[in-house]
Amino acid sequence: MNMNMNPNSELVQSAVNVPNLVQVPDALISQAREFQQAMMMYTCAIREVKTKLEVLNDELSIKNQRNPIEMIKSRVKKPISIVEKLQRRNLPVTLESMMNNLDDVAGIRVICSFVDDIYAVANMLVSQDDITVIAIKDYIKNPKSNGYRSYHMIVEVPVFFSSSKKNIRVEVQIRTIAMDFWASLEHDIRYKVDKTKLPEGINEEMLECSGKIAEIDRKMQDMYRRIKAAEKNTASPALSELKKQDRE
User: Fold this and answer.
1) Are 148 and 186 a contacting pair, CB within 8 Å?
2) What string of DSSP letters covers 103-144?
3) The pTM is what?
4) What is the DSSP letter of 195?
C-alpha cells in the first residue's frame, strides 16, 4: 500500500506577492520614500477588503449553493492620475493632500449576477465591526445623467503593520455583469477616445442602452426569484423534513 508519510504533504504552497514599486511623480519626488510607503499601504488595504469579500463569497457558496460574486477587480490609482485629480480640484500636490482628499486611491470593483446580490454583499461587508462606512452613493436607484449605474461605498479598514495600525480608505464599487459591460464602454468613450471623432448621437445611444440593460437586470432578477420560489414549492415533504431535522 502506497502511503505518503510526509507530514507536510497536505500543505498548499503559495507565492507571497510583494507590491511593485510605483514610479514617483515629479511633483512628489521630494517625498519619494513616503509616497512608495503610502502606495504599499493602499495595496494592503485592498488585500484586506478583498479577503473579506472572498470569505463571504465562499461562505455563501456553501450556505446558498451559489456564488453571489462573479468577479473581484482591484487597482491602486496610477501616480499620474493622482496628480491630475489633485490639480483638477485645485488642491496641493502633496502626500498629505492625497491621503486627506482622495478616497479612491485604493479601488475594488465587485461584479455580481443580480441586483439583489449587490445590496446583500454591501450589507454584509459594512456589518463587519472593523469596517467604517465613510460614504455611500447608490447610482442604481439614482443613476447618473449619462445612464451610469453602480453602487459605490467609501469604507475605512484597519491595516496592521509591524509597529502600527493604519485606518485606510478604499472605494468599493458593486455592480452587475450588465452594468459593468456598459460602464467599460462608457469609460473608453470618456477617457480613451478623441471626443471630436465620436459618431453623432453616440451619447444618446449609450443612455438608451443603459435603460435597456437596467430592464434586462430587472427581468433576470425576477426570473431568478420565480425559479427559486418554484423550487421551494415543489420540494418533496421528505426533503423538507430532512432540512428541518438538520436545522434542529
Assistant:
1) yes
2) S-SEEEEEEESSHHHHHHHHHHHHTSTT-EEEEEEETTTS--
3) 0.81
4) G
